[in-house]
């Protein structure tokens, strides 16, 4: 059987052509961006006079760059990593121009037995590592947090944005249909579709992270399929590397 990683690579390589294009996706990006901008102090992005040079952000599982676009005005350098080569290609073609931060993405998987890219200076010591709506696609959640934590500088922040609560089987079917994929292909990309309050913070604490906190996005994210609109809640979970 293919691994979750293989399933994700295949699924998102196929899906990337239409990712970001729908009005509901634009609205979702705007919602997330507004939240991140409003909470940038909570994220440590207003370092002011204490700042020791440009803030470095790792947008992990970056897809086509939602989190990058939201945070680019507040940071100096961004590196994206994604398991799907076609997503990386699209990220680099969309992002390379007109962004204030120096930005590029590479193909990789930090949850694989041999993490890629290796921990060179370019891919370590980040001030912030952010994961947008991809944590539920990880094969091993605790290992994922551990591996991402290792890419932070001491005092750096891990931010995970994901869905609160799970969806039922019929919604999974509608979602797969909407993307012209089989439910089996979709289900193979994840163990679960969302998390409970406190679940991700607990994993962060398990691997030694401190100062964890969570915010719930006000209102619902409306995700539209051909015939139904699914309302989902999103949460933002933060922890600090000691
Ligand atoms: C729902 S998309 C989210 C993309 C983007 N972060 C956003 O907020 O729009 C999930 C992304 O996770 C990537 N992904 C899944 N598993 C991964 C892994 N183990 N390592 C890196 N990227 C992964 C997929 O290729 C896909 O681009």
Automatic annotation (TrEMBL):
Keywords: Methyltransferase, Transferase. One of its GO terms (molecular function) is methyltransferase activity. Pfam families: Methyltransf_23. GO terms for biological process: methylation. This is S-adenosyl-L-methionine-dependent methyltransferase. The lineage of its organism: Eukaryota, Fungi, Dikarya, Ascomycota, Pezizomycotina.
